[in-house]
Specification:
homodimer, 200 residues, alpha/beta, Rossmann fold, 7-stranded parallel beta sheet, 7 strands, 40% helix
Chain lengths: 200, 200
């Protein structure tokens, strides 16, 4: 398969690339690095990415920013960061990719444990993760040509504890390589409309 | 209690008002009708509503538009209708109300069954409902002064079948008066961070 990993230069993305590159051709898409550049907030940039890649069988997304802040301080603008970037950025990859992806292809998006197991300062992240999970369940039933879509919902990644650990005291982390297996299951399996919870 | 029901002139809202007005003072907020007018997409309009109402103990929201359309036709703009209206409109009610609501007050938002039980043309509705459920779970843990927040997630309402029934073949509907009980439980109970699924 030819698989585009958007965010393939990030912590999870690198592990996904390692796992999938054992058996497939992987094209790494990044904002500034990688084989091809893409700004997921910009549909035209996504169209350009797909055009430059040519034929592809799977899109994996491991990207998306959200704003972390205390509930009392969060503004509509703060919430829109996550809605525009992690949520709609990933949805844009599906919207623009749907007509281009090969028959039987798949999309795999990234949500996260905060949808159901919230933390302080995480209202936006929870909102966005819940949206992604439900979007994948819904989009799956309308896809044609055996195209599939799943979400991977990881807990905090062991390699990210240095940066994010203070938000996640008491959470069990998972190594990126373990989370990467769920992406492999999504891409290489046959399931659709699933949310793979890698919560421990 | 003094309870603001935003959308109190709608199908669910009227039933909520009937239930709550038995025991409380209810202020109905609507876009064009009701005791006070509000545009939930506009934070300033919400601020004005709260100012004109004065002291209040609970906010119930039964409003929110989303765009229904086939997955293949949905654009980013189509998705943003639901994100700006049903999602952020309701979140705006919380953001602007948090500092004004009485100690021990509550917010009750409306999501819906499509978060987990999707239909054709419902990708945006699913996304938005999932976001609302997860937002409520997260926001609950950061609220102070015993303020609470819950979501009510109804299935299709019996009184709405004439308008929406064709999207929901095979779904069991619930009468608005039954859904209204969940809002009463949220407002008059002591639970927080809950999603009351009125799915059958």
């Amino acid at each position: 398969m030819r698989i585009i990993v958007v965010g393939g230069t990030g912590t999870i993305g690198k592990a996904v690339v390692s796992e999938l590159a054992k058996r497939h051709t992987v094209i790494v898409a990044g904002f500034t690095h990688g084989d091809v550049q893409v700004n997921i907030r910009d549909i035209q940039s996504i169209e350009n990415m797909y055009q430059s890649v040519g034929q592809f069988d799977a899109v994996v997304s491991t990207v998306g920013k959200v704003h972390f802040g205390s509930l009392a301080d969060m503004t509509a603008e703060n919430y829109f960061v996550g809605l525009q970037d992690k949520l709609m950025g990933q949805v844009n990859l599906v919207t623009a990719g749907l007509a281009r992806i090969q028959d039987g292809g798949s999309f795999t998006l990234t949500s996260g444990i905060l949808s159901a197991d919230p933390i302080r300062y995480g209202a936006s992240a929870s909102m966005v993760n819940g949206a992604i999970d439900s979007f994948c369940k819904a989009a799956a039933i309308e896809m044609t040509r055996q195209i599939r879509i799943n979400a991977v919902s990881p807990t905090v990644i062991t390699e990210s504890l240095e940066d994010y650990g203070d938000y996640f005291h008491g959470f069990e982390s998972v190594p990126a390589a373990r989370a990467a297996l769920a992406y492999s299951k999504s891409v290489e399996g046959a399931q659709t409309g699933q949310v793979y919870q890698i919560w421990r």
